[in-house]
Amino acid sequence: MTQDELKQAVGQAAVDILLPNLQDKSVIGVGTGSTANCFIDALARHKGFFDGAVASSEATAQRLKAHGIPVYDLNSVDSLDYYVDGADEANRHLELIKGGGAALTREKIVAAVAKTFICIADQSKLVDTLGAFPLPVEVIPMARSHVARQIVKLGGDPVYREGCVTDNGNVILDVHNLLITDPRGLEEQLNAIVGVVCNGLFAARPADILLLGTADGVQTLKAPA
Ligand SMILES: O=C[C@H](O)[C@H](O)[C@H](O)COP(=O)(O)O
């Protein structure tokens, strides 16, 4: 199977989990990226069975609307049962690196609200130790150099993502050469740097379910109790 087919398979598998649980009033949290797009396209085939969605990026909002799915402001929604999104890396604790598409902050907000976070990914995203994928950090533009210096003190090599402005008007530093043995600790350390808006480690709020697309079918991984 191609990588695109694996992404379509996990997008459909997420819809299959949601469908029996959807009600007329259900609002679904929707992530960003090529895998999340496969989920959106599969979900759109059932748009009569739920109310609408909350989007984690402008790009996702546009894709949902193009399918005729109503998009709600998160502030107008009382609760979200499900958030479905891709990842750049995942470990077996379902801790993630996200933000390759610069949507990490809104993704982390929607994930924080959702009762169940279903991560969808092809098998190439599963790793033993997070950090081969450069860790995205969203930064207030005027703090870029300060934050970069603090990240160097933590042992990382920050690289400014040229030309990238997030949906929140900020910039991204991609941190290379981190061997992330304590994802939760590093997530906290990065958040404590003044000028950091958010970082792409999802460890304090990992996924609840990881649907992994493999050549043998979709595997379901759950976080160890
Ligand atoms: O900012 C982007 C997101 O975190 C994406 O969910 C992540 O980069 C995975 O994207 P894709 O499914 O395209 O590999």
TrEMBL record:
It is an enzyme of class 5 (isomerase). InterPro entries: NagB/RpiA_transferase-like, Ribose5P_isomerase_typA_subgr, Ribose5P_isomerase_type_A. GO terms for biological process: D-ribose metabolic process; pentose-phosphate shunt, non-oxidative branch. Keywords: Isomerase. PANTHER family: RIBOSE-5-PHOSPHATE ISOMERASE. NCBIfam families: PRK00702.1, rpiA. This is Ribose-5-phosphate isomerase A. It comes from Pseudomonas jilinensis.
